[in-house]
Amino acid sequence: MSEGKIVHQLEHLEKEIEKTQNVLFELKEKIAKENIEKIRFEMELQHIEEQLQNMMSSDVQRKFVSLQALEKKNSQLVDKFNVTHTLIEDTQKKLADHRERLSDLKGTKIRIIQALASNNAVNTILNASINGVCGTIASLGKVQEKYALALEVVAAGRISSIITDTDIIAAQCIKLLKDKHTGVAMFLPLNRLQDRAQKKELEQLKHFSGVIGVAQDLIEYDKGYEKAFSYVFGSTIVVQDMDVARKVGVGRVRMVTLDGDLVEPSGAMIGGYRKKTIGI
Questions:
Q1: Is the pTM of this model over 0.70?
Q2: Which residues lie below 8 Å from residue 250, measured CB to CB, with a gap of 6+?
Q3: What is the DSSP letter of 48?
Q4: Lowest CB count within 10 Å: 21, 135, 187, 266, which one?
């Protein structure tokens, strides 16, 4: 996603948040008014009940017509009371829904700001022409389109990680970001990354029906970057769909489906609708 699109989306979210906050204020005022109306109905009902009690000790024949009128009014007030009570409950539900939406909007805003800061940090390093900076995981790997979404999910935020020759270069880059106040980035120094040896179990599962392969094996990259791509992709297998993942065994290994649904070794399952955003 380009910086311009992110900024445009951020401005749109600001307007949405302001609009939602206005709705919340109006709903609060409406609840307050409805509560006042509810109290008024309660007081009128109490007054009518008191009148009815007084009439019991008076001449019933003489006040029969008044009694009928009071009973009718009482019934109407009960109906109004019930309607008002329902309105209050509905309004409170709407208020809760808008509060939840406001929270979601603020969360989205924070994520966009963080993404914008991350993009700024990565661009700062890549544009600095620092010797020993190789590039990002996203720019140095190539995949077939059918695997792109699954591998994006596997990499998550690490897809923008910057590969460097050494930890000295990575430290210089971090200092540059601090000096320029341009955000935070992840660095993968090739001289310090530990080899992530593929588990024997991963190799065995490659032959399981519906298993496409280890995520790292589905990417084309210069073998000089082996450690970096192993760090990001080496512990996950790609499977056809969630049914295959369940047959392999939820919680057995980290798995991702072609649709981007993720199964963690802890047993956690993350999924739903996704669309390709960054790409490698």
A1: no
A2: 263, 267, 269
A3: H
A4: 266
